Amino acid sequence: MRLKHVNNLLFAATVLILLYIIVAPVLPVLTFWLQSRTDRATQLAAQLTLPVSNVNVGSGDRIVIPAMLLNEPINEGSDLRALHNGGTWRRPKTSTPDSGGNTVIVAHRYTYTNPRGTFYFLNKIKTGDEIGVFWHGKRYVYRAVSIKTVSPDDSSVEAPTTQARLTLYTCTPLWLPKDRLVVAANLETQP
Amino acid sequence: MSDKTRFWLLLALFLISVALLLVLNSALAQQVLIHN
Fold it and tell me: What ipTM does this complex have?
């Protein structure tokens, strides 16, 4: 009788895990849809135009993308562990917003431990969308100029540039992430 | 099928599903960078 009870528990746990494996990757779509019905996008867009003294996006270096309803920290670090607690990671051998050149920021698209990966909705960005970077207390606003998919060995997206540029990338497609989705944006307003 | 046989079968299925989740998560977590 007791073994039967254990069997029922094992069966339920197995079904739950398999359901999580199947359903978790699409749950962020639901949360995005719910959030998009609020004025969050408008609030985030306002952070890119308000006087910097009135901006309230959180502490530290951050990236704000109204089209993705995104406001996340920019982490520094030498390897992927910089993404262990979520957020984004500025690739250490690339530039910084205050130095000009090519600043490259990456983040996870999706993992089971962080179902809504920071760049889950990077594909929502269209050319012309604004991207704000708050870096060392100053605001840099970029405008997306190109969105493309490249192979994971195309290192040209991280190459230095003469003009101030922001490059964001993550893996794509969602289920079998064999390529990289890359968004390039040019600096529009600087402090 | 006896309860004991069912227990071992379910335990194996449970462990396989946990392993699948861990393997998938690990694979996805590595798929972010562009490699030079």
Answer: 0.87
